[in-house]
Amino acid sequence: MRVLHKAYVYLTCGRKLLVFSQPDQPDVGLQVPGGTLDPGESHLIGARREFHEETGLVLDGALDHLADQDHLFDNGRGRDLHRRRHFHARVARIG
């Protein structure tokens, strides 16, 4: 079984949550910025990198750890374990 480490960022501004969709993958639906860590990368650094890659924005503030989750996925040849770490960041205003 392959283990993939992933990190996600839930950015809020007041009661608003930053989400996006990918036009080339409409079946995925809305999602928060995040993805697979690079080899040797920490969850925190990976969360910041993935957030920047997917939004073009830089997170200057603190990231609070929300939760960890393990998800099993059938990849067609076996199973992958996605070991996910979720972070929360707050901004006072956008723009």
Parts with pLDDT < 50 across at least 5 consecutive residues: none
Biggest sheet statistics: 5 strands, mixed
Query: Can you count the helices?
Result: 1
Q: Mean pLDDT, nearest integer?
A: 93
Helical content (DSSP H or I, runs of 4+): 10-25%
How many β strands by DSSP? 5
Please report which band the strand proportion falls in: under 5%, 5-15%, 15-25%, 25-35%, 35-45% or over 45%. 35-45%
Structural class: mainly beta
* SSE order, one letter for each helix or strand: EEEHEE
What is the CA-atom radius of gyration, in angstroms? 14 Å
Molecular shape:
globular
The N- and C-terminal alpha carbons lie at a distance of: 43 Å
Characterize the structure shown.
It is a single chain. The protein is mostly beta strands and 95 residues long. It contains one helix and five strands; from the N terminus they run E-E-E-H-E-E. The chain has one helix at residues 43-55; strands at residues 2-13, 16-17, 34-36, 64-74, 79-90. Strands 1, 2, 3, 4 and 5 form a five-stranded mixed beta sheet that branches.
Task: Give the topology.
Elements (H helix, E strand, L loop, with lengths): L1 E12 L2 E2 L16 E3 L6 H13 L8 E11 L4 E12 L5
Parallel strand pairs: 1-5
Antiparallel strand pairs: 1-2, 1-3, 4-5
Give the gist of this structure.
The chain is mostly beta strands. Helix content is 14%, strand content 42%.
Characteristics:
1 helix; single chain; mainly beta; 95 residues
